[in-house]
Specification:
heterodimer, A: mainly beta, Ubiquitin-like (UB roll), two-stranded antiparallel ribbon, 1 helix, 7 strands, 11% helix, B: alpha/beta, Rossmann fold, Oxidized Rhodanese, domain 1, 2 domains, eight-stranded mixed β-sheet, five-stranded parallel β-sheet, 14% strand, binds zinc ion
């Protein structure tokens, strides 16, 4: 049984509008048998933070196209994407790409 | 005598009229005359840049402050003067970018924009002037650039960048700066840069945030490596919907100019495989390490499926402009025109007008008799708002005893959100609130301002 995880979540580029316009969220994930990965984090976010219009954030088991996920200031693609195993104190950022000019 | 005098007076009057007409004509011509060169409607190759081997005395005087920098120096200046940069979009990013590159002595600037200068551009598109309203942005920007540095070759293109012209254009330039304002153009510019092997310095801005990256550069990713699939159209917010603080694209356009400058002068960009994000609210920059070029990328990968330019509007499901989309969710009998609504008002027919815009827009302007409940709160079925709505509807019902279903009209800025609200209210009718007849006011408050009340503000 792993101990609870403390995470720093951030939403930006407009993604924060789905989270009550709050950009920064300090969250604690409950302890569970195995380690937490990003796939499970997305489910947790959908159940605990994302109250309405989940389709604007999640598509299938991943984020919708146009949202970039950053784990500790690196593109999640470099970190194993959905399979990345979260560590206590990690920062995970969800950024919606901007198109305006 | 009297007769002659009358004839002369008549003649005098006529001449006066003629002079007035001529004066007006002159004024009109003066308003419409354009000091800038004619835009290239079809893409003709500009004359090639002559490679300077040394700087003239005037160059040395003009650029002395940057020549003193060891990182730049004479070599950097000469390199810059040989470089051509294509600026896609002469808006909030393109204006400061073009301005600084021209001031620094870039060889040639291509300025693309299909749009015309509007009053609501001027807070951020700082090359355009009040007197250039209605003029093509490409021309307005070119004339401002010309007066800043006449030694810069300036090619305005008053056109929409398209799959037909993009490769021809981009092939004539060394570096491309994406300063566009919509998703299809971003994919188009990316693919054209990959196919023609040009580095793409790409910036974007919205509300209080900005992003900057360089694509297709030294083994780094392209736009498609990062975003293989386009975002769903209804998740995309543009500046005319979401707003933007002028200085934010200003900052991003300047940073974009800086990276172009470093590539052009030979130092190379620092943003290789990096994304820089700016949060104006927190005054904070953040740099992110990005993935490298993806071997399975549709355009820059090992087996690309995109080998020529495609139809980007249908790929993205949206138009290549930042103008608002027009939704069509309702049947004709669920909507009324602003004129019909005005007639109803004139007859003082009892009804409820529901304005579903966000509060920040209602603060800008509203119709005084409207009730404001933002669409987001209707969607969330906010209990306070439902309670308020129920009270207003039941009050209305008492007022017009005899009519079983009181009329509710829904309005927003352009008539998109109001249609969504009509659908929600119809579901609520007879359940959470008394049974009502709901109608959308077509085209919203901007149609009201255009057609019914020209004194109503437009934003
Ligand atoms: Zn790619």
């Amino acid at each position: 049984m792993a101990a609870p995880l403390s995470l720093h979540l951030e939403f930006g580029g407009g993604a924060e509008l789905l989270f009550n316009s709050e950009k920064k969220h300090q969250v604690s994930l409950p302890g569970q048998a195995g380690p937490w990965d990003i796939r499970q984090l997305l489910v947790w976010i959908q159940q605990n933070l994302l109250k309405e219009r989940p389709e604007l954030f999640i598509q299938g088991d991943t984020v919708r196209p146009g949202i970039l996920v950053l784990i500790n200031d690196a593109d999640w693609e470099l970190m194993g994407q959905l399979d990345y195993q979260l560590q206590d104190g990690d920062t995970v950022v969800f950024i919606s790409t901007l198109h305006g000019g | 005598m009297a007769q002659a005098l009358a004839t002369l007076r008549e003649k005098f009057k006529e001449q006066e009229k003629e002079i007035a007409a001529l004066r007006e004509k002159v004024a009109q011509l003066e308003m419409s005359k354009t000091p800038a060169p004619r835009p290239d409607v079809k893409v003709t190759p500009p004359t090639s840049l002559t490679a300077k081997s040394s700087l003239s005395n005037e160059d040395i005087m003009r650029y002395s402050r940057q020549l003193l920098l060891p990182e730049f120096g004479v070599k950097g200046q000469i390199n810059l003067s040989k470089t051509s940069v294509l600026v896609v979009g002469c808006g909030g990013l393109g204006c400061p970018l073009a301005q600084y590159l021209a001031a620094a002595g870039v060889g040639r600037l291509g300025l693309i924009d299909y749009d015309e200068v509007e009053l609501n551009n001027l807070h951020r598109q700082v090359l355009h002037r009040e007197e250039n309203q209605g003029q093509a942005k490409a021309l307005s920007a070119a004339s401002a650039i010309k007066s800043l540095n006449s030694t810069v070759q300036c090619c305005p293109y008053q056109l929409q960048l398209s799959p037909e012209n993009a490769l021809d254009l981009i092939q004539q330039y060394d570096i491309v700066a994406d300063c566009s304002d919509n998703v299809p153009t971003r994919y188009l510019v990316n693919d054209a840069c990959v196919l023609s092997g040009k580095p793409l310095v790409s910036a974007s801005a919205l509300r209080m945030e900005g992003q900057l990256t360089i694509y297709n550069y030294k083994g780094g990713p392209c736009y498609r490596c990062l975003y293989p699939a386009p975002p769903p159209p209804d998740t995309v917010t543009n500046c005319s919907d979401g707003g933007v603080l002028g200085v934010v694209p200003g900052i991003m356009g300047c940073l974009q100019a800086l990276e172009v400058f470093k590539i052009a002068s030979g130092q190379g960009s620092s943003l290789h495989q990096q994304l820089m994000m700016f949060d104006a609210q927190d005054a904070r920059f953040r740099s992110i390490k990005l993935r490298p070029r993806q071997s399975d990328c549709a355009v820059c990968g090992q087996n690309p499926s995109v080998t020529k330019l495609v139809d980007y509007e249908s790929f993205c499901g949206s138009a290549a402009t930042d103008k608002c989309r027009k939704l069509n969710l309702l049947s004709r009998d669920q909507r009324i025109t602003v004129q019909a609504y005005k007639l109803m008002l004139d007859k003082a027919e009892p009804h409820l007008l529901l304005d579903v815009r966000p509060l920040v827009e209602v603060d800008i302007c509203s119709l005084p008799f409207s009730l404001n409940i933002p669409l987001s709160q209707l969607e969330a079925k906010n209990s306070d708002d439902i309670h308020l709505l129920r009270e207003r509807i039941s009050h209305l019902k008492h007022q017009i005893a005899g009519i079983s279903q009181p009329p509710v009209f829904v309005i927003c800025k352009l008539g998109n959100d109001s249609q969504k609200a009509v659908n929600i209210l119809e579901q609520m009718s007879g359940l959470q609130v008394d049974s009502i007849i709901v109608k959308d006011i077509c085209g919203g408050l901007m149609a009201w301002a255009n057609i019914v009340d020209p004194s109503f503000p437009q934003y």
